[in-house]
Design brief:
The complex is a heterodimer.
Chain A (H helix, E strand, L loop, with lengths): L2 E12 L2 E12 L3 E5 L6 H9 L6 E6 L2 E2 L10 E4 L11 H11 L4 H14 L15 H13 L5 E5 L7 H18 L3 E5 L2 H7 L2 E6 L2 E7 H6 L4 H6 L4 E4 H11 L5 E4 L4 E3 L5 E10 L4 E7 L3 E7 L10 E6 L4 E3 L5
Parallel strand pairs in A: 3-8, 3-9, 6-7, 7-8
Antiparallel strand pairs in A: 1-2, 1-4, 4-5, 9-10, 11-12, 12-18, 13-17, 14-15, 14-17, 15-16
Chain B lengths: L1 H26 E2 L2 E2 L2 H8 L1 H34 L5 H13 L2 H12 L14 H26 L2 H9 L4 H29 L3 H7 L6 H10 L4 H25 L21 H25 L1 E2 L2 E2 L2 H4 L14 H30 L6 H13 L2 H4 L2 H11 L1 E2 L2 E2 L6 H23 L3 H9 L4 H30 L2 H6 L7 H10 L5 H25 L9
Antiparallel strand pairs in B: 1-2, 3-4, 5-6
Helix pairs in contact in B: 1-11, 1-14, 1-17, 2-11, 3-6, 3-8, 3-12, 4-6, 4-23, 5-9, 5-12, 5-22, 5-23, 6-8, 6-9, 7-8, 8-11, 10-11, 12-23, 14-15, 14-18, 14-20, 14-22, 18-20, 19-20, 20-23, 22-23
Classes of the chains: A alpha+beta, B mainly alpha.
């Protein structure tokens, strides 16, 4: 795949603070790249710089081989979707969606047709005449997405597009967003702090920390080989072990990595397991019991038990390791 | 309910009763209903001339004010640069400057001896309109600025990313969001321009008279009370309609969606607007600078003679008491007026900031809010005249009361206090009060724990604002102040009227003192950073 967006050595400053620090990455044509990082890591600034809303201090950006330097926001042919949609409150849903088309003097009939098509695509047929204030958060976000897709942007920029929604809706919309972007063949850059959102929507991922990209690759590459302990815990790994505890754990698991990241579900209460552990605390959730364990020769680890298992605090029991739920660190420091 | 009764009673006695008395005077002669005088008055060519001038001068001044003010609103409320705070305060000062001072300053600017003499503006309508614009730029800047701050920048960015050029972004996103603010500001500016008194009286001379000065002339010069009353009635009617229309379009910029820190550093493309703002600032400073320089002209050279003369009664005893004594009076009266306006205004603001659930009670609150805006529209001259003819005999005889002038000034300042404090109280999330109550706080504790910490700065700002306005109040005061106990604006007007000797220089010096005092107060107010000051 040819690179659509190429970002090279990009640095953005706010006064004395460096918000984006020497960042380099590509977004291949038709791909969706998620930049994942905690709040304040500079990911939104990165997105704004790509949109042309922040001037870079140094570095370069190009799209389809053409430099974006000096190209103002409205001439980049991108579209930007904010967390809260930023629909124009004084315009109906249809007029919001038609807005970029009217800017381009598309003829009224075509606008109406395109608007209907887009409302269909985002699952809101019949909403054309509603006003934004009468919509729910999820509906607003869908309308904003339809508006952003109206002109078939060369690059869709998504700034935490689902973060303002509640959990159930977020998961549902993330899956839909994935399908809509693939259907439309849109190249997109998504920034988010939510790894679930990144996984559901993107096919490539870049992890950002303190203004720098610390890791970039396909979802599997990043997921299965987090670069360091910080990245692993940011991606939702419960524990990172290195040195002697890591070695002892892996004797039981049959692997040999210098450092290892474990998901909570990698350690499971199982009479057939090889490790002895004592229950430090237990917390019940609908799907599993979450445990804090003191594992013999290794130390504190998080683990799970099936619902209904008797795991009183202080009990000694046997746990098994699931190697599919653990990953080596690329750069064990 | 009880709380609402007090301000209503005060407004009833000291506003509706005098204004009503004034209106009645027009229709009843010697106890019998005789509206003939009113119609006769309305048929006079002179009346038509006055009405026409009032309308077109106010209309043109309003249009110019909007054109001048909107770019400045952008620069002072969307851009962040050193000196912005000073500029913001500077823009508000003309609004609270005593009208007499502004009239004098403009006349000085365009007089045959002034710096703009070659333009031959002395005694022209253009000069009056310039002065009206000078006064009201801040209304547009503050009101539209508050709306501008309320626009989420990302909304404009989303439009730009969708392909809208900066001009298209302004036309399709920014302007529709600003429009309620512009309409609201424009209607208030029109109101102020069409009821302007001091500047028109001083600059209009014999050629130009608006409804307001005409009422004054009919009352004080021609002693034709029925005609004056007829004009007042007309004015009250027109203004009530105008206020109702503007109340319908008015909408506080929603404080909930306010984005903090939207101001950004100026960029190259902001240069034309920065230039525009500089020009407006020069326009605002020029009359003040002229005033200052004229006050320092002492006979043939420069000096502080005019200031020293302020403790005299002027050449040929133009005054009955020294100007310094008048300054003392002014400060004292303004302090009492401010106290009255604050007590009433805070009560009203508290009441109108409630958001009851029922439609009827909500409408009641709306009406209540509207009633207390009335003094904004009814001319100060009508008010002063009404005081004169209704409060001089039982049931309410205040002829000799030292409270007469402070009460009149408090009525003028009242709407401004409400407008400053109410939006701040309204921005408090009701759930904060509910949370405090659920933790065991009684109504008074809720007030102290939730409302006060959020609103004390706006209360302080409103106090300063009310004080500045009272200090410069001329319309109503000119009717009520006795010559042996005048306020400073009245003294300035007298000094201008009694040409000769050092009187003119003294008027200049007194104007500078008055302007300086109001400016000081407004700089202090600006430091409190209350956005609702001077917004409508």
């Amino acid at each position: 795949m040819a690179a659509a967006l190429e970002v090279r050595d990009l640095t953005v400053r706010y006064g004395d603070t460096i918000a984006v620090d020497d960042v380099t990455f590509d977004v291949p044509s038709g791909a969706v790249l998620a930049v994942l990082g905690p709040s304040g890591c500079g990911k939104s600034t990165l997105l704004r710089a790509v949109a042309g809303l922040e001037a870079p201090a140094s570095g370069s950006m190009s799209y389809a081989g053409r430099s974006l330097a000096g190209v103002p926001t409205h001439k980049r042919g991108f579209a930007l979707l904010f967390q809260d949609g930023q629909l124009f409150a004084h315009q109906s849903v249809a007029r919001n969606i038609g807005y970029p088309l009217r800017l381009r003097h598309v003829d009224q009939l075509q606008i109406a047709a395109k608007t209907g098509e887009l409302l269909e695509l985002v699952g809101l047929p019949g909403y054309a005449d509603r006003m934004p204030t009468t919509l729910s958060g999820g509906e607003r976000q869908r309308v904003a997405l339809a508006r952003a897709l109206a002109v078939e942007p060369r690059l869709l920029l998504l700034d935490e597009p689902l973060s303002a929604l509640d959990r159930g809706l977020r998961e549902h919309l993330a899956a839909e967003l994935h399908d809509i972007l693939r259907t439309a063949g849109t190249t997109a850059l998504l920034v988010t702090h939510d790894h679930d959102e990144a996984f559901a929507v993107a096919d490539r991922m870049a992890v950002m920390r303190d203004g720098r990209l610390v890791q970039e690759g396909t979802l599997d590459e990043v997921w299965q080989h987090p670069v360091d302990a910080w990245t692993a815990s940011f991606l939702g790994y419960a524990t990172v072990l290195s040195g002697e505890p890591a070695r002892r754990l892996q004797q039981a698991a049959g692997t040999d990595w210098p450092a290892v990241a474990l998901r909570r579900s990698a350690i499971r209460v199982d009479p057939a397991g090889k490790l002895q552990a004592r229950v430090v605390s237990a917390r019940e959730t609908p799907e599993q019991i979450r445990l804090e364990l003191d594992v013999e020769d290794i130390g504190r680890l998080e683990g799970v038990a099936d619902p209904g298992t008797a795991v009183p605090v202080g009990a000694r029991l046997t746990v098994a390791i699931d190697t599919r739920r653990m990953a080596p660190l690329l750069k064990p420091s | 309910m009880v709380l609402a009764a007090i301000p209503l009673a005060v407004l009833g006695i000291f506003f509706l009763y005098p204004v009503g008395g004034m209106v009645a005077r027009g229709f009843w002669t010697d106890g019998s209903f005789a509206p003939g005088a009113v119609f006769e008055m309305l048929a006079r060519p002179r009346t038509h001339r006055v009405l026409w001038f009032t309308l077109w001068s106010a209309g043109l001044a309003t249009a110019l004010t909007v054109v001048l003010g909107v770019p400045v609103a952008y620069v002072l409320h969307r851009l962040d640069f050193p000196g912005r705070g000073v500029l913001r305060a500077l823009v508000v000062i003309p609004f609270v400057l005593p009208t007499v001072v502004v009239g004098v300053a403009f006349r000085q600017l365009i007089a045959p001896s002034g710096p703009l003499a070659p333009l031959h503006l002395d005694g022209t309508a253009a000069a009056i309109i310039a002065a009206l614009v000078f006064f009201n730029v801040s209304v547009v800047v503050r009101t539209v600025g508050a709306f501008w701050e309320g626009i989420d920048r990302r909304q404009e960015e989303a439009a730009a990313a969708l392909g809208a050029s900066p001009l298209q972004v302004f036309r399709t996103v920014t302007l529709p969001a600003l429009l309620p603010g512009i309409v609201s500001a424009a209607s208030v500016v029109f109101l102020f321009c069409s009821t302007a008194f001091g500047v028109v009286l001083i600059m209009g001379g014999l050629r130009y008279s608006n409804v307001e000065t005409e009422i004054y002339l009919l009352t004080t010069q021609e002693l034709d009370l029925p005609s004056a009353a007829a004009l007042s009635v007309l004015q009250v009617l027109v203004i009530t309609v105008l206020l109702l229309t503007s109340a319908r379009t008015r909408r506080d910029p929603t404080p909930i969606t306010r984005v903090v820190g939207v101001a950004r550093k100026p960029r190259t493309r902001d240069l034309p607007l920065l230039g525009w703002t500089t020009a407006v600032v020069v326009f605002l400073l020029a009359p003040l600078a002229t005033l200052l320089s004229a006050s320092l002209r002492d006979g043939s050279g420069w000096g502080l003679g005019n200031y020293r003369a302020l403790n005299t009664t002027g050449s040929r005893n133009a005054l009955l008491v020294p100007a310094t004594e008048a300054l003392g009076n002014s400060l004292e009266i303004a302090a009492v007026a401010t106290l009255i306006a604050m007590v009433l205004g805070t009560t009203v603001a508290y009441l109108v900031s409630r958001r009851p659930r029922g439609t009827t009670s909500r409408r009641l609150v709306g009406t209540f809010d509207g009633i207390f805006m009335l003094p904004l529209g009814v001319s100060a001259v009508t008010l002063g005249f009404g005081f004169l003819i209704t409060l001089d005999h039982p049931p309410v005889d205040l002829r000799t009361s030292p409270l007469l002038i402070p009460i009149a000034q408090a009525m003028v300042a009242l709407p401004l206090v409400v407008r400053t404090v109410a939006p701040v109280l309204r921005s408090i999330d009701e759930r904060q009060r509910q949370a405090a109550a659920s933790l065991g706080a009684g109504p008074l504790r809720v007030l102290l724990a939730v409302d006060l910490p959020v609103s004390w700065r706006s209360l302080l700002a409103a106090t300063g604002f009310a004080f500045a306005v009272s200090l410069g109040e001329f319309g109503a005061t000119s009717f009520l102040a006795r010559d042996d106990n005048p306020t400073l604006p009245v003294v300035i007007y007298r000094l201008i009227g009694h040409a000769g000797g050092q009187n003119f220089g003294m008027a200049m010096a007194a104007s500078v003192v008055l302007a300086g005092a109001t400016a000081l107060v407004m700089f202090a107010v600006e430091r409190l950073r209350i956005n609702s000051v001077g917004t409508f």
